[in-house]
Amino acid sequence: MEQRNKQSAKQIEAARDALAGGAVDRLYARRPELVERYGPAGRQKCVDDTRYTIDYLVNAVSTGQPALFTEYVAWAKVVLERRNVRAEDLADNLAALREAARELLPPEAAALAAEYLDAGIAHLPTVAAEPPGGLIGGLPLEAMARAYLDALLAGRRNDACRIVIDAVDRGTPLRDVYVMVFQEAQYEIGRLWQMNRITVAQEHYCTAATQLIMSQLYPRLFATPRVGRRMVAACVSGELHEIGARMVADLLELEGWETFYLGASTPAASLVQEVADRRPDVLGISATLTPHVGRVAEIIRLVRAEPTCAGVKILVGGYPFRVAPGLWRDVGADGWAPDAVRAVEMVKSWQFEPEGTEADVQR
Question: DSSP E strands: which ranges in the chain?
Answer without folding.
Answer: 230-235, 258-261, 282-286, 313-317, 335-336
